[in-house]
Amino acid sequence: QVQLVESGGRLVQAGGSLRLSCAASGRSFSGDAMGWFRRTPGKEREFVATISRSGGDTYYADSVRGRFTISRDNAKNTVYLQMNSLKPEDTAIYYCAADSSVTQLRVGLRADYWGQGTRVTVSS
In this model, does residue 22 exceed pLDDT 90? Predict the structure, then answer.
């Protein structure tokens, strides 16, 4: 069974840091772009960051650029999101995703595979 499983979400103080992980299984995702998205109740799914199959190209939403860093370890079939200088506005369920097209991830907010999400809560 193909799965993406996020972990690392928790309650943190504003200004703090977290590192989220997304472990993939069932197939290799080395040929796919991967990304992170987030959603809060009553809001649409929001793009956070994407990373190319090799890890050489990254793209970030304006709201997180300079604070978040996406990375991947293809040998471990895992993608990460380092989150620094967290703000209460970052509170959300964070999802990882994979798709053959980075454009579908970043622009279309669509993916071939989605994780179940991990909750991040940032207190003020």
Answer: yes
Give yes or no for residue 6 having a pLDDT over 90.
yes
Q: What is the DSSP letter of 94?
A: E
What does the mean pLDDT of the chain come to?
Answer: 96
CA distance 13 to 88: 8
Alpha-helix runs per DSSP H in the chain:
102-106
Closest C-alpha among 50, 59, 8 to residue 29: 50
DSSP string, 1-23: --EEEEE---EEETT--EEEEEE
Q: Are 4 and 97 in contact (CB under 8 A)?
A: yes
Q: Which helix (H) or strand (E) holds 96?
A: strand 92-99
Side chain identity, residue 62: D
Long-range contacts of 48-57 (CB under 8 A, 24+ apart): 48/81, 48/94, 49/81, 50/102, 50/105, 50/106, 51/79, 52/102, 57/102
